[in-house]
Amino acid sequence: xxxxxxxxxxxxxxxxxxxxxxxxxxxxxxxxxxxxxxxxxxxxxxxxxxxxxxxxxxxxxxxxxxxxxxxxxxxxxxxxxxxxxxxxxxxxxxxxxxxxxxxxxxxxxxxxxxxxxxxxxxxxxxxxxxxxxxxxxxxxxxxxxxxxxxxxxxxxxxxxxxxxxxxxxxxxxxxxxxxxxxxxxxxxxxxxxxxxxxxxxxxxxxxxxxxxxxxxxxxxxxxxxxxxxxxxxxxxxxxxxxxxxxxxxxxxxxxxxxxxxxxxxxxxxxxxxxxxxxxxxxxxxxxxxxxxxxxxxxxxxxxxxxxxxxxxxxxxxxxxxxxxxxxxxxxxxxxxxxxxxxxxxxxxxxxxxxxxxxxxxxxxxxxxxxxxxxxxxxxxxxxxxxxxxxxxxxxxxxxxxxxxxxxxxxxxxxxxxxxxx
Length: 421
Ligand SMILES: Cc1cc2nc3c(=O)[nH]c(=O)nc-3n(C[C@H](O)[C@H](O)[C@H](O)COP(=O)(O)OP(=O)(O)OC[C@H]3O[C@@H](n4cnc5c(N)ncnc54)[C@H](O)[C@@H]3O)c2cc1C
Known about the structure:
Helix content: 25-40%
Number of helices: 10
Low-confidence stretches: none
Bound molecules: flavin-adenine dinucleotide
Number of strands: 21
């Protein structure tokens, strides 16, 4: 196939078939564009596969919160830390960390939170529209997200966050005392401090979501090419002319790069700084026990999440800045099981059959990168979704479609502009 065109013509070529690439394809095909989407691996098999599946407008506070620098420094000496930085040889990594650290203060946190809040709310609304209008079978559940605390100290610390979310962002939770929590769900222990229920949050099963959405998009005419790696880009007169891939070349009018954690590698070709760092997370999925939490839950003191699906239960957590390393140490998976023990009144059968790891695409300001680049007329970026790519996918897809059409966008896209770095 070398040198030949994979497809004679397509309006839009999308690189990356994770949840973000799929969302872009959806809103573009709905507007009548022909769309081809390529991926170096299988569709939806990277970070969009085994994540926790929370659709969580409650997660509007960025990772750059006061105290994160100290957490990062401590993690250098603690291999069990859920948030871990491993020393690396790349100077660009230390520059990234420096930029991240500079933003770990109250003022920058609130500024980023405002920008996150508007896109989170928009995306949550788009999810409702999506599931009302399309037959996507993703185990969509609007049951909220429960934040459960083991200790009074942890609970009291979170009260400040909850107040901030309520007062500044109008995201209020239902507070559950120890007794309320047991009444709400008997799978929790009787000695926990309490919980907050964010009722607007929802969940999907990520792999079911990408599989079902892909099927729908195929029916609508989107062309998918798996195991097709973008190798280089032909440009002239300020435009991308051709993508050269491992399977041949692709022509299109416009190009969308939804390459997740791999995006930094495109900086040179796209003539733009793309400081996206991979942050590794883990999950493990087991058959759903007869008795287990009925609503997705977070244990913030242990930084572990647990999502019940129709037939499965998933535990997920950790954020390791350790480059693209694929190892899944058994002790990390065990940590997931151990972290849930202080909270659950039910025994969970430990199984190591379905461990998973994925790389979140992290930006140093916690905001996604959505929009046009400045040097190439027909290039758009849809990447850098940090810990919120599942949640932000529909908003991103819709914004990309509006930008391509030259329409006014539903929300202000300035905070996410690719040229900000
Ligand atoms: C443990 C864990 C739990 C999480 N939980 C949640 C959650 O509950 N809610 C939430 O909203 N988010 C969550 N996230 C974050 C979320 O998973 C990511 O933000 C999201 O999956 C990113 O989607 P993406 O499409 O940008 O990236 P990906 O899914 O990684 O897709 C990018 C694709 O681009 C392809 N690609 C890259 N370079 C090339 C190239 N040169 N040629 C061809 N193809 C290429 C890759 O193969 C890949 O398939 C979690 C993440 C982790 C790790």
